[in-house]
Amino acid sequence: MMKRASLIDNLERKGVVLTDQERELILASFETVHIKKKEYLLKAGEICDFQAFVITGCCKVYILDSQGQEHIIYFAVEDWWLADLESYHTNSPSKFYIQALEDCEVLRISRDVKEPLYDKIPALERIYRVMLGQECVALQRRIINKLTMDAAMEYEDFCKRYPSLLQRLTNIQIASYLGISQEFLSKIRGKKKI
């Protein structure tokens, strides 16, 4: 139950206080899903009809280009949310893969369960608006970094923003997120140590 309490903490940090009854209803609306390392929560071509909250573990969200090259869009660890928002909101096939990098436990809520909750708990709509805003800010920051920073600056920014991820990710995964080769990442790291 303590693990599930982190979901409520995450929601209430968005600036809304929930009643005990609302908390219970929210917790009852999420299902616990265990994903083994390398297993998928979502594959490209499937409809993303859920949103998920990471309790334990680490996942990557990525796309494959026409040559089959993987491009990591973001990572999600404890206290982060996962979904393909385009697929979720348009009911269209996903372009993303969501894969566990470690054994994971996530709380998942389907669209069919979540939408009626808005009528029962109006504060959830406000929470969702705040979450969407935060996601837009993060994606905007990522785009600006891509357009204005070289790879070394991007790596340094990644290290500052996500220091706890550095021990959990491989060089290949970090390089994929940055959009560079593993060899180039090694050169950047080598220069940083000098």
Automatic annotation (TrEMBL):
Organism of provenance: Myroides marinus
Domain Cyclic nucleotide-binding: 18-112
Single Gene Ontology MF annotation: kinase activity
SMART domains: cNMP (SM00100)
Alphabetized InterPro entries for the sequence: cNMP-bd_dom, cNMP-bd_dom_sf, RmlC-like_jellyroll
Domain of life where this protein originates: Bacteria
Pfam families: cNMP_binding
Keywords: Kinase, Transferase
SUPFAM superfamilies: cAMP-binding domain-like
Gene3D superfamilies, A to Z: Jelly Rolls
Name used for this protein in its record: cAMP-binding domain of CRP or a regulatory subunit of cAMP-dependent protein kinases
